Amino acid sequence: IIPGTEEEWSYGAFDGVVADEFVWGRGTMDDKVSVLAILEAVESLVSEGYRPERTLYLAFGHDEEIGGPRGAAALADTIARRSPKLALVVDEGGAVVEDAFPGLTRPAALVGVAEKGFLSVRLRARAEGGHSSMPPATTSVGILAAAIHRLEQSPFPASLDGPTGAMLQTLAPELSLGMRTLLGNLWLFGPLVERVMTGTSTGAAMVRTTTAATMFDGGVKDNVLPIMAEAVVNFRILPGETVESTLDRIRRVVDDERVELEVAYEGAAQDPSPVSDPGGAAFTLVARTIHEALGNRDLIVLPYLVVGGTDAKYYSGRSPNVFRFLPVSLGERGPAALHGTDERLPAQDFADAIRFFHRLIRNTGELSD
């Protein structure tokens, strides 16, 4: 937890207290619930004498928050050596949300069918040093700031192709006549829908490669001209684009020979995942399992683009059916419920998660190879 915030927790951050119909503690939402729910489901199945019809792997990595190089990546490689072809992969990613879309009155179970790529680029500008009393027209800091400004003012083009378009088309029958007309005819109204979605940071993340300047370093003293200034800009890459196409566009937009570009660090470049078919038998099976496990909720199941990253990316190419979902409710706090002070999980969600994995394991016997 963030040092200095310990006293802000209602219960000890690592005590795992069950109170007020919640389980309280760091990681309850992201992502200890999945590990414990899977283990509880498997123990229940074993006690029932259940024998799976196909090989089942439980893969628990320890380093997802730093990219999973030694945990999930090693696990995926090991599993691939044993079973080169996987019928289904299910990881974290989507959740149950309220108010998923304007006009939707039902809660939505968001099942990630793909996740965006990741690219962090270091920009470096060099200029003459010297005393600040006799500055040039533009310092290295100014050169770099201008480059970042150009990147922020030239966003990547929006696109409704892929998971977001599939989500909107699935939503259409649930909405008003006007919205059904818009979303059911994206071939005609797509540009309008894109403009609406790019009007918010959440919507923009669903339809374009995003640009976020996150680090800036230049200068050591207020009266000394910095010879070099550096910044890191993070891009989350939309499916359909690649690391290379993103780098090409960055170079064109920056368009300044005084600014050097490079991938920020080893492992800082990852193409978007392949898109698993939201109309296929495997997605239908997962959706049915959600309805069976969460029958107490009037849910609509939607295909979804995960705008962050998960360990599922290490299984790209190892299975045509890689999905990202946990049956937990983000509630009013939304994404702030993850990693935040007073992180907590509704106890009912923990029970639902166990039920979901119990049924999912049973249902996977229906999948064809």
What does this structure look like?
This protein is of the alpha+beta class. The protein is built from ten helices and 14 strands. Strand 1 (17-19) and strand 2 (22-24) form a beta hairpin. Helix 1 (28-47) packs across helix 10 and helix 9 packs across helix 10 (347-363). It is globular and about 80 Å long. The two termini are 44 Å apart. The model has no long low-confidence stretch (mean pLDDT 92).
Give a quick set of tags describing it.
369 residues, alpha+beta
Count of DSSP helices?
10
Proportion of residues in helical segments: 25-40%
Helix-strand string = EEHHEEEEHHHHHEEEHEEHEEEH
- C-alpha Rg, in Å? 23 Å
Low-confidence stretches: none
The count of β-strands is 14
**Helix/strand structural class:** alpha+beta
Distance N to C terminus:
44 Å
Largest sheet: 5 strands, antiparallel
Question: Could you tell me the mean pLDDT?
Answer: 92
Shape: globular
The percent range for strand residues is: 15-25%
Give the structure's gist in a few sentences.
Helix content is 33%, strand content 22%.
Which helices and strands appear, and what pairs or packs with what?
Elements lengths: L16 E3 L2 E3 L3 H20 L24 H11 L6 E9 L10 E8 L1 E10 L3 E2 L8 H14 L9 H9 L5 H7 L2 H12 L3 H7 L2 E9 L5 E2 L2 E10 L5 H12 L4 E5 L5 E2 L10 H13 L6 E7 L15 E8 L14 E3 H17 L6
Parallel strand pairs: 3-13, 4-12
Antiparallel strand pairs: 1-2, 2-14, 3-4, 5-9, 5-10, 5-11, 6-8, 7-9
Helix pairs in contact: 1-10, 9-10
